[in-house]
Write a structure and sequence with these properties.
The protein is α+β, with helices and mostly antiparallel strands and 159 residues long. It folds into 3 domains: 3-34, no CATH class; 42-79; 80-159, OB fold (Dihydrolipoamide Acetyltransferase, E2P) (Beta Barrel). The protein is 31% helix and 32% strand. It is built from 4 helices and 10 strands; from the N terminus they run H-E-E-H-H-H-E-E-E-E-E-E-E-E. This protein is a component of the acetyl coenzyme A carboxylase complex; first, biotin carboxylase catalyzes the carboxylation of the carrier protein and then the transcarboxylase transfers the carboxyl group to form malonyl-CoA. This is Biotin carboxyl carrier protein of acetyl-CoA carboxylase.
Length: 159
């Protein structure tokens, strides 16, 4: 295995969200490990409680109407906002270090090119810049949480 193949393997592992890959050949052995949590676990854990909660709600005759109304109004409220999404898999940070101020808070006005967060991927800290101008309405991810590609991070009200 040459260096170019190793580099391609490292890129593949970082994009796929796999925690560990080991390859062993006759005269060569390589193991690539990341400190990322498995993306599959994060996708399946929230769905289990929702499925369990859906069965009791369906058995109650008046509950579905009450549950459907807030869900419909929530969908209408977010439709006027622009979503800033994660461009990569990694760990989301709201500031450059624990002792530094947050890049943005709810209510802050941002412009195109303003750094809104950092995403750490493979020990590299990537500043994420806003591509829109507006006011931060909601921060959808907790600090130091793992994020996936194209996961919504912020809701922005255009100005």
């Amino acid at each position: 295995m040459d260096i170019k193949q190793i580099q391609e393997l490292i890129k593949f592992v970082s994009r796929s969200g796999v925690n560990e890959v080991a390859i062993e050949q006759e005269d060569f052995k390589i193991t690539i490990k990341t400190n990322q949590t498995p993306t599959v676990v994060h996708a399946t854990v929230p769905q289990v409680p929702l499925v369990q909660a859906a069965a009791p709600v369906a058995s109650a005759p008046t509950a579905p109407a009450a549950v459907a109304t807030p869900a419909a109004s929530a969908a209408e409220d977010t439709s006027k906002y622009i979503t800033i999404k994660s461009p990569m898999i990694g760990t989301f940070y709201r500031s450059s270090s624990p002792d530094k101020p947050m890049f943005v808070n709810v209510g802050d006005e941002i412009g195109t090119g303003k750094v809104v967060c950092i995403i750490e991927a493979m020990k590299l800290f990537n500043e994420i810049e806003s591509e829109v101008s507006g006011r931060i309405v909601k921060i959808l991810v907790d600090n130091a949480s793992p994020v996936e590609y194209d996961q919504p991070l912020f809701l922005v009200e255009p100005i």
